[in-house]
Every structure is written in structure tokens, then in C-alpha cells.
TrEMBL record:
Keywords: Aminopeptidase, Hydrolase, Metal-binding, Protease, Signal, Zinc
Species whose genome carries this gene: Ephemerocybe angulata
GO terms of biological process kind: proteolysis
Protein name: Uncharacterized protein
Cofactor(s) required for function per UniProt: Zn(2+)
Length: 501
């Protein structure tokens, strides 16, 4: 996407230190980066300025910056354009295809609306028709009576995959299908298993709970005609999408200090905290760093498709040779650093809180952050290395890692409310993965503090890697994402277990 001249002028006004073009000679004449000076350049004004632009980008694609959308592509272009204008970095777009599948569904029977879930890969459709119960469990073509043609097939969960039921309904020329649970609750995480099925074309399909199905079945069994209204909005397509990778021209390329955050949102919202906050914090640091020189090269990764299972960061790490992996001294991750009901959480590098430590050097990174918060008289707490963000692929190849997090869907405890303020019994981010993750969903004080902590860590390690082992690493035989299905992989995005006394 091409950005207008006025748009670039505005962005540079937010980050005035990025305007001068650099070459090797001018870089070498600059003072060595130091933590205090780099932190001092963090400003709420510039952070919010970038956030407003991200929100505008989301409006290009109906309120989302999901990967491959116009809103996401504009985000990627904005980041790369600003970094290129500094002349301080070698930048690249790492572009690749990935399947995008997202949708939503609503269903009503005789005008009573029921909570409804969409199935991954399910097609769009808008159907108003009578419900026809399907015999048995709908796992055989003979279970679908002739009168289901043009109607909505009403099918019980059980025995065979959802995808086969939806395909057999389509083969029987049903206009739509409802699969109801064989237990009282809703079906969670439903998927048709693949974009297509040999048994037939998918009918537009959604699920309801077993408890709601009992109401419908009572009417059908009593001989009452039941008219269903099924509306499914869905997209399943392969999209091309890009990571932005920026490496300082100066500094030792055999000792790279890497930090990253993801540029995409979920399809349901603009993602201004998740992870606009982490992305913008790193972008702001990257646009200030050109005032300084670095001893160790600094690299920034702005990852795509994290919300679909760490796709961008996994693709990047998998593309590196063992020799290139070895050059990365450490990785720092910043995902959701401005949650409105925040906590100051640090990844549990030494494993003391959750029992799963990171590769050697991760404990040092954790302590670097802990010491920074102590110096500011702020309480911090550990968060688990669960693999649910872009540090996961780096852990999998033995790269010491760390980072910050302010909480997602988990509720804040009474003790934590005493530490950090906010509301006990309320999620750290009540707009997590929702439409309301907009400008009003940012705690700016926490955001500024975390951005300064990030600047401190980058400046510290850009000067010295004392405490970070640089010998040959032992690498696990496979990544935690290897072999996972498309749907299982999507569970690896954002969110972490956090420490509770």
C-alpha cells in the first residue's frame, strides 16, 4: 500500500529523531547507546500518535487489522516506510502465503435467537427455511431424508467429524445445517477439519448448545413446524502477508539483540492493545535508536499472523540456517503491554514460578527486567513461558528469551489490585480479542513504563552481552508447532498464565 506524503510527514513529526539519513561513517560518530538516554525519549504523545494511525488502518477493512487485510497491509507499509526513512537499518519484507479462515454465525428458531458458533472453513450463507431433523447422527448419506432439500438440516453431534456432516448435508442439497451438541453446553472450537470434503459441498453450518437443541427438538417431536433463520458470514482464502525485519547497519552481526511484537489483530477488532501496544512501543524505540551507535547489532521483528498461531515468527525462525540462529544472542518479546486493568508481568526465564525455564540466559533477561522495575519502585510478577506468543519459536531453537506482558483474559486478584491498582475480579483486558480493543483500551501509564523497560533492555544488551552465554546451543528436535493442525495451532496466540500469590 502506498502512503501519502502528508501521512509520512505526520509520522515523522511524531518521531523527529528519525529524519536524518545515516551511513556507516555518521553512525560510527554517534555516542554508544545508553539506557537512560534512550528511555528519556519515550513519550505518551508519540505512542498515542501511532495508535491513532493503527486505528485508522483498521477502518480500511471494517474495523480489523487481521493478517492480509487492507488494515494489516497498511500497518506493515507504515512500519517499513518509517524505518527505511531513518537510513539506519537494513530492512526487508519476508512475504509468504498462509490460509485465512474466519467467520461468524447467528441462528434463530421460530424467532427465538440462540447463541451460535461458526465452524472453521464453513461457507457463508443466509437461509430462512424449515428445520428437518436428520436421522441417527448424520454420518451416512441415508440419514438425510429427501425433504431436507432446500431446508435446514438439524443434526446431532457424535461419532463422525463435523466436516462430514456439513458435506453430507450439502450433498443432500440442504440449504443449511445446524449441528447441536450432545451435551448441554456449546460446542467450543468447532472446525470442519479442511477447506473442502470429498463427501460433498459444505452447506452453510453453525452449532448450538445441547440445552437449546432440546427446546427445538421438543417442538419438532410434537409435530410443530419450526422455521430457522441461519446467517453465516465467512471468508476462507489464501492470503499473502509479510513480516518486517529491520537490522541496524552498525554493530556486531554475530551478536544480534533481537526484539519483536506482532502487527496483526484478530478478525473481530482493531487490536490496539493486542498487539498495537507492543508493536508501537518497539517502533518508537526503533525510531529513536538512530541517535546512537550500538556495539551489538539490534534487530526488530514485526511479526504477521501471530493470532493464527505464531505464523510469522515461526516462518522466520524456520527460514534461518543453524549458523544464522546462532548469531542471535537473545530475543525480547512485547505482546500486550498496555492492558487497561494491567499487571507488570515478566516472562519466567528462570522457571522459579512455573517450573518451565527458558534456555540459558533467559534468567538473566528476567533479572534485567526485575531490576528495572525495582529501580522505579514498581512491583513486578512472573508470567509463564507457555509458548503463547512469538517468543515460542525462539525458545524452540534454544535462543534465550524474555519480555513483558500486562495480562489478557485472566481476572486480576485482590492482591494484584493492591500492587497495581485497578479492579479485582475483572480481566486485565476486558476487550481482549474484541471489537472494543481500541484507543480507549490502553492504560497509557503502564504503556509508557513498559516501553521504557523495553528500551532499557535493548540498550543494555546492545552495549554488552555479559550474562548471556554465547557458546553453541543444543537445539530441540522439533518446534512445538510442528505437526499441529491449522485449528490447534490457533490456540498459540497471546495470553499467558500469570503469577498469583
Amino acid at each position: 500500500m502506498k502512503l501519502s506524503t502528508s501521512f509520512i510527514t505526520l509520522a515523522l513529526a511524531l518521531s523527529p529523531f528519525a529524519a536524518a539519513q545515516d551511513d556507516a561513517r555518521t553512525i560510527s560518530l554517534k555516542p554508544l547507546v545508553n539506557s537512560v538516554a534512550l528511555q528519556a525519549l519515550t513519550s505518551k504523545l508519540t505512542l498515542l500518535g501511532h495508535a491513532r494511525e493503527f486505528l485508522k488502518f483498521s477502518q480500511l477493512s471494517g474495523g480489523t487489522r487481521a493478517f492480509g487485510s487492507k488494515g494489516h497491509n497498511a500497518t506493515v507499509s507504515y512500519i517499513k516506510t518509517l524505518l527505511d526513512l531513518t537510513g539506519y537499518y537494513d530492512t526487508q519484507l519476508q512475504t509468504f502465503p498462509y490460509l485465512f479462515s474466519s467467520g461468524s454465525a447467528t441462528f434463530a428458531a421460530n424467532n427465538e435467537e440462540f447463541t451460535t458458533k461458526w465452524f472453521t472453513y464453513g461457507p457463508s450463507g443466509d437461509v430462512t427455511a424449515l428445520l428437518v431433523p436428520v436421522a441417527n447422527l448424520g454420518c451416512d448419506a441415508s440419514d438425510y431424508p429427501a425433504e431436507v432439500e432446500g431446508k435446514i438440516a438439524f443434526i446431532s453431534r457424535g461419532t463422525c467429524p463435523f466436516g462430514l456432516k456439513a458435506a453430507l448435508a450439502g450433498s443432500a442439497k440442504a440449504a443449511g445445517a445446524i449441528i447441536y451438541n450432545n451435551a448441554p453446553e456449546l460446542i467450543s472450537g468447532g472446525t470442519l477439519g479442511a477447506p473442502s470434503n470429498d463427501a460433498g459441498p459444505y452447506a452453510p453450518v453453525a452449532s448450538i448448545s445441547g440445552a437449546d437443541a432440546e427446546k427445538v427438538l421438543a417442538l419438532l417431536n410434537a409435530g410443530t413446524a419450526v422455521t430457522g433463520k441461519l446467517h453465516v458470514t465467512a471468508t476462507t482464502e489464501t492470503r499473502y502477508t509479510s513480516n518486517v525485519i529491520a537490522t541496524t547497519k552498525g554493530g556486531d552481526k554475530n551478536n544480534i539483540v533481537f526484539s519483536g511484537g506482532h502487527t496483526d489483530s484478530v478478525p473481530e477488532g482493531p487490536g490496539i492493545n493486542d498487539d498495537g501496544s507492543g508493536t508501537i512501543g518497539l517502533l518508537d524505540i526503533a525510531l529513536r535508536l538512530p541517535l546512537f551507535s550500538v556495539k551489538n547489532a539490534v534487530r526488530f521483528g514485526f511479526w504477521t499472523a501471530e493470532e493464527f498461531g505464531l505464523v510469522g515468527s515461526e516462518h522466520y525462525v524456520a527460514s534461518l540456517t543453524p549458523e544464522e540462529q546462532q548469531k542471535i544472542a537473545l530475543y525480547l518479546n512485547f505482546d500486550m503491554i498496555a492492558s487497561p486493568n494491567f499487571g507488570y508481568f515478566i516472562y519466567d526465564g528462570d522457571g522459579s514460578a512455573f517450573g518451565t525455564k527458558g534456555p540459558d540466559g533467559s534468567a538473566h533477561i528476567e533479572k534485567t527486567f526485575e531490576d528495572w522495575f525495582k529501580s522505579k519502585k514498581l512491583i513486578s510478577a512472573p508470567t509463564e513461558f507457555s509458548g503463547r506468543s512469538d517468543y515460542g519459536p525462539f525458545l524452540d531453537v534454544g535462543i534465550p528469551s524474555g519480555g513483558l506482558f500486562t495480562g489478557a483474559e485472566v481476572k486480576k486478584t485482590e492482591e494484584q489490585a493492591k500492587w497495581w491498582g485497578g479492579e479485582a475480579g475483572v480481566s486485565y483486558d476486558k476487550c481482549y480479542h474484541l471489537k472494543c480493543d481500541d484507543l480507549s483500551n490502553l492504560h497509557t501509564e503502564a504503556w509508557v513504563q513498559n516501553t521504557r523497560a523495553a528500551a532499557h533492555s535493548i540498550a543494555t544488551y546492545a552495549r554488552s552481552l555479559d550474562g548471556i552465554p554465547r557458546g553453541t546451543r543444543s537445539v530441540p528436535s522439533q518446534s512445538r508447532l510442528q505437526g499441529l493442525s491449522y485449528d490447534d495451532r490457533k490456540h498459540y496466540s497471546c495470553g499467558h498464565e500469570v503469577f498469583d500469590l
